[in-house]
Design brief:
The protein has 605 residues and is of the alpha+beta class. The chain is built from 15 helices and 26 strands. Helix 4 packs across helix 5, helix 11 packs antiparallel against helix 12 and helix 11 packs parallel to helix 14. The longest helix has 25 residues. The radius of gyration is 28 Å and the shape is globular. Bound molecules: adenosine-5'-diphosphate and magnesium ion.
Amino acid sequence: MSRATLRAISGPVLRARAEGPFALREAVRVGELGLLGEVVRLDGDEVLVQVYEDTTGLRPGAAVVGDGLPLAIPLGPALLGHIFDGLLRPLAGQAGAFVTPGLRQAEAERFEFTPLVAPGARLAGGQPFGEVRAASGHVQRCLVPPLAGGTVLAVAAAGPRSDSETVCTLRDAQGRELPLAMRHSWPVRQPRPVRARLPSDAPLVTGQRILDSLFPVALGGKAAIPGGFGTGKTVLLEALAKGCNADVIVYLGCGERGNELAGVLEEFPELVDPRSGRPLMERTVVIANTSNMPVAAREASIYSAVTVAEYFRDQGLDVALMADSTSRWAEALREVSGRFGELPGEGGYPAYLSSRLAEFYERAAVVETLGGARGSVTLIGAISPPSGDFSEPVTSHTKRYVRAYWALDVKRAQARFYPAVHPLQSYAEDARLFAPWWARQGQGAWLALRKRFLTLLDEQARLERMARIIGKDALPVRQQLTLACAELVNDAFLRQSAFSPIDRVCTPARQAAMMRLVAKFIDLAELAVAAGVHPERLAALECLRPLQRMGEEIGDDQPERFAELEARVDREFAALTAPAAPADGAADGAPDSDADEEPQRATDR
Ligand SMILES: Nc1ncnc2c1ncn2[C@@H]1O[C@H](COP(=O)(O)OP(=O)(O)O)[C@@H](O)[C@H]1O
Ligand SMILES: [Mg+2]
């Protein structure tokens, strides 16, 4: 074990004079409390250490002792259902609850172990040797650590075991005995190896219509949610955590103000999994670093979170990681870099901000695991750009690496239009890959409908600009129709409250039904207008209101009500265009029911 003597302290960064060889990224213990740190730079006999705990009270002269191993986190059955700090040490459950300084690992816990192998079996890294059944019914696999392997010498019988005791012993190729427990350590900054990265042909189903139907992210893909303060990032991430079809959720609360995270910490344990009716925490890991926790631990927390996600992926599961927010992580990187005395780049961030973001998002993938299973990690990062400016470095660099970009719009949020995802600033680069998937859900026309909705929304923006100048009524009828249809897409389809008992999660089947119904209305409206009906008469149709409210009112288990509504739409249009109807002249004085969209009249010169 190498030793060094502490010489200077600058917040979380220490300089020490080495008395033996240290390795870059080696974990170290500092001072009497054994504070946890990591070697971040070696310069002759000087080591630069980043400390993950509060360094108040440390004095020059204190001992820095090397571990001989890179900084690692414990991965095992004790993760699910619990709340940890950035280095995976258990938090008591309240924000502001600090871990005991110097604490390395959680206390051992007992789990119901079932062996999956017998002595004599050959096991490679990443293969399961046993499993753990939780009372909740969740099964977790106990994996041989990725770089280990050998022939099974002994394996424990089924029964309750501590997660740190040896339950399986291998003899490796060199003839050494290798004891395995249900948990193993893995270096926090090193991606866990896989057999192959696979292409993704399915979306992560989020349960949010505007995301699944317009801007889907791949299972194993990467998405960013940039949004100014109060635009709904946290609510959206939580809605995704509750509603997406991943098997395991890793929720990283990174550096947001303590009181905001307190909300998450209090709320998560209460959340009910809409799929099973059981507590959502049973398949969730929460990692929390509030802004009052040491800054370096915040920098590490994003790596801990993605390593945890990979660990569950390696068990053949689909994992979604939600990070709120990557901006706070980047700020931690900036602060620590400043303490190292590195030259600041754009926005004060170190020049390697971009490559760090790339490395993080690169860890999203669908893979064939070392054990031969198929698993995935989907990464979703919120970004909180200062004063909502999306041209700042974290947003602009992240944009280069994500495939789905869900930009939250201040104006929509102010109008309480949620989720406030801006349909023109957002995009999904993989959308067309998912057409076959939607076809399998019975929505063969998905890509065409999606394009149609996006085109309408695009035209709406253009026409609204024009309407602001010349007045809405001065627009040709076809354009008035376009505006009305785009409004319907917004109100009847894209708007979705995260707090509505029926609508907070929307299944693909229900999304498809709603999308078809809105498209049907638009088709009929276009035909009617082509036949001479004035768009204002469409606004008076009685089926409009139930269409706008169908998300809130028609549940997943009532598909017949969509059929009823469709029949009603058909009936009302038939009546509208029936031959008896008088030819539509310049109808004036018809009451305008949607007063909220009254265009501003341009002043005459
Ligand atoms: N999808 C949503 N459905 C309903 N209300 C929402 C939604 N998103 C945001 N809100 C409202 O906006 C408020 C602020 O959202 P929040 O997620 O805390 O913003 P941010 O994290 O971007 O600062 C919430 O308290 C809630 O009232
Ligand atoms: Mg927030």
